[in-house]
Amino acid sequence: MLRLGIVGLPGSGKTSLFRALTGVVAEIGAAGRREIHVGQAKVPDARLDRLFALYQPRKETPAVVEYVDVAGIKAGETSRSGLEDQFLGDLRTCEALLAVLRHFEAPGLPLPDPARDFRTLEQEFILSDHIILEKRLHRVKKDIQKLPNRAEANREIELLERCLEAMEQEIPLRRLGLKPEEMVLLKSYQPLSLKPVLAVLNVGEEDIRREGEILDRYRPAIEGPGVELAAACASIEMEIAQLDPASAREFMDDLGIAESALDRLVRASYHLLGLISFFTIGHDEVRAWTIPRGERARQAAGEIHSDLERGFIRAEVVHFDDFMAQEGSMPACRAQGLLRQEGKDYIVQDGDIMEVRFAV
């Protein structure tokens, strides 16, 4: 399951966005609170809905994203020990971060400046990572004479020193162009500034028709390697999420909103992390499965069940578009040569419908 940590400065509206995304009732405005909130959101996919309508199975199982809402982050807080167990522990286990940036005026808060707020968050990520990696560097240097593989230890020291030098210049690790083997080593420390970030401008209701213009204004200052920008009005999205589908559609039409921002955010999260969906279908269940782009059929089968990966023989595959072009008929797909037999090294495509043949 994809897990994203929601972060933001106090007053950014991140907990409102969390509530809109997940439907979980969380206390708003409690900066410095110690507890975290965890909730899930279904990944919207019209293809899954069409498959469900076609098969009418007992169960429809969409892909799911889990969101973790932590306390509001104050500038300079990382230097205090109170942040270690809350900020680091809860966010380092997430695959990516969703940074909520205020773009509306509010009493008692400075004028909104999303670029400034993003820099503040980045500085906290970098400082957090610096503390962790500096401790690790000290430990490796101290124990190098006792380590069985000194060459490997020296490579780690070189990497850690390079990372620390960059962070001292306030450069996040995701911008260093690290090699795959270096990424693997650093991932064991779960550095925050290495994680992909979806930066979300939380706009006021008066700006929901100007989101494109606002995004273009801030892209040069915020977007970069591993960072993508999106926009949402958290307060409006929270209202939409509480309505039934018909009422929500009417409300959105009144506001001139073609699509819920929440749906766009979930899809943007998938794109940021290079994820795709494939489907399994039947009269018991129609289900979407999440895998990294480029994953092979045998590993994808393992997402369904470990036995399928272990005993993989072949996969019968048809793409959703081809399947629907034949009016959802597998015999027609087979007759047209659209239903293929693929081996373990087949690279699964977004929208593939798969049935795995296996023996254990």
Number of DSSP helical runs:
14
What share of residues is helical?
40-55%
Here the CATH topology of the largest domain equals Rossmann fold
- State the secondary-structure class: alpha/beta
The low-pLDDT segments are: 79-83
Beta strand count: 12
CATH superfamily of the largest domain, by name, is P-loop containing nucleotide triphosphate hydrolases
Q: Which CATH first-tier class of the largest domain would you pick?
A: Alpha Beta
Largest sheet: 6 strands, mixed
Rg over alpha carbons? 23 Å
Helix and strand string, N-terminal first? Answer: EHEHEEHEHHHEHEHHHEEHHEHHEE
Strand order of the largest sheet: 2-4-1-5-6-7
| Average pLDDT taken over every residue | 89
How much of the residues is beta strand, in percent? 15-25%
Q: End-to-end span in angstroms?
A: 26 Å
- CATH architecture tag of the largest domain: 3-Layer(aba) Sandwich
Overall 3D form = flat
Query: How many discrete structural domains?
Result: 3
What does this protein look like?
- By secondary structure, the chain is α/β, with parallel strands linked by helices.
- The protein has 3 domains: 176 residues, Rossmann fold (3-Layer(aba) Sandwich), CATH 3.40.50.300; 68 residues, DNA polymerase, domain 1, CATH 1.10.150; 65 residues, Beta-grasp domain (Ubiquitin-like (UB roll), Roll).
- Helices cover 43% and strands 21% of the residues.
- It is built from 14 helices and 12 strands.
- It has a 6-stranded mixed β-sheet, with helices on both faces. Strands 3-9-8 form a 3-stranded mixed β-sheet, sandwiched between helices.
- Strand 8 and strand 9 form a beta hairpin.
- Helix 1 runs parallel beside helix 8 and helix 4 packs antiparallel against helix 5.
- The radius of gyration is 23 Å and the shape is flat.
- It starts with a strand and ends with a strand.
